[in-house]
């Protein structure tokens, strides 16, 4: 389909655009449309768009603007989003796509009941029963086994890794050197040259994910779309002299390996005072200049110099690249924080590129497809048994050629 024949957006992104077009009629407080605090503003936006549409103020505008609606990943819709789509379905032909076994975005509240609310409004017309992705990858047995695993988990039963095909490896966590076993699992390579490996832990284990990315050669983290680390840093930096070197080094430490914050700050002070006995290195000179100047250009130069330092590797590149992009976009008319927020909203729509070796949670990696999926603890995604089964299923289906599962038992679910 030609790109000018469709509009691709998230439901929330579309809602924001509609509310900005009709701010007075929608009745939403203008401050929420600026997304100063995304976690606070988006719930208000979702409630406002559902209420606004229910008044049928723009039904004719919508029917004149679109010919149909297609909503993917419908199992992740919350009640307000479901209300929006249901309303659109009264105006336009509407098709929804989804899988209730992949419903893992419901930690903030209950979602519409799939059988009663969703299928009651959108009757089932087709169901995919052939594992095309695995067949296309030459892993027919793995795809067939995963289909059966889905049926088993959906029924509340347990799957047996001992009956899995050769493309599934079980790493037994028996309490003996479990961390070393998990570390070695992270080193799993794709059967195909250049193939992607996705490594998954529980969603709340951010520290573990970052530690694994630091320790695993070539691994990087996959970040949440709200990019809180970038906006928090941008709110702390004023881009005026003197530069906040301590905050800049803290940020660099959070995204790169090999950053000795205290040593760099101390050397910068010593060199600036002309008391150094050894010649300054490039990153130390960059630190001095940033502290003296404090502008966006000198901060970017500091990050570039730190990245180029021997023994340093960026394991959270999405955070660093977004930060640098925001710094370059900032200026007299657009502050660093505003630039960061604009880029964040753009990336919500554009999506992300898949690195060759990614570390994250099923929530962060959902929708991404690699050659290999590595699960570091199959029982540790969620304390709720049903939610754990759904997270497990999402994690197991991220790899099209190979699956590695670390667990204390061969029976999962």
Task: Explain what the structure shows.
This is DNA 3'-5' helicase II. This protein has 413 residues and is an alpha/beta fold. The chain has 20 helices and ten strands. A six-stranded parallel β-sheet has the order 4-9-8-5-7-6, sandwiched between helices. It has a two-stranded parallel ribbon with strand order 1-2. A two-stranded antiparallel sheet has the order 3-10. The two termini are 41 Å apart. The mean pLDDT is 92.
Describe the main β-sheet briefly.
6 strands, parallel
Global mean pLDDT = 92
**Percent in helix:** 40-55%
Supply the number of structural domains: 3
User: What gyration radius follows from the Cα positions, in whole Å?
Assistant: 24 Å
GO biological process, one term: recombinational repair
Keywords: ATP-binding, Helicase, Hydrolase, Nucleotide-binding
Domain UvrD-like helicase ATP-binding: 50-111
InterPro entries: DNA_helicase_UvrD/REP, P-loop_NTPase, UvrD-like_ATP-bd
